[in-house]
Every structure is written in structure tokens, then in C-alpha cells.
Write a structure and sequence with these properties.
This protein is an all-alpha fold and about 50 residues long. The chain contains 2 helices and no strands.
Length: about 50
């Protein structure tokens, strides 16, 4: 059984992994190294915290 990243049925990540597995018969590649992660990066979000 595969699981996706979101429990929100309106999210594009709701059943993406299940659909991928049902068409590819494999799980998505797991990225372990910083180089692998950077090579597959689609976007970033920078968060900052400002103290009062």
C-alpha cells in the first residue's frame, strides 16, 4: 500500500504517490544525500522569525 503526503482531498499531494505506484509499479526514489536533494529541488521557502 502506498501513501501520499496529504490527507486533504483537494491537495495535489493527496494521491500522487498512489497514482505513481499504480502506473510505474515502483515507489519514488528516496533522496538521501544533499546532492540528490539539491538536484531534485523544485522550490524553496525561507522562513524567518523576528523577536519583539
Amino acid at each position: 500500500m502506498t501513501y501520499s503526503q496529504s490527507s486533504n482531498a483537494l491537495s495535489p499531494s493527496f494521491n500522487d504517490q498512489s497514482e505513481f505506484y499504480s502506473t510505474q509499479k515502483q515507489l519514488r526514489p528516496l533522496l538521501f544525500t544533499e546532492a540528490d536533494i539539491q538536484a531534485s529541488l523544485e522550490s524553496t521557502t525561507e522562513l524567518s522569525y523576528q523577536r519583539d
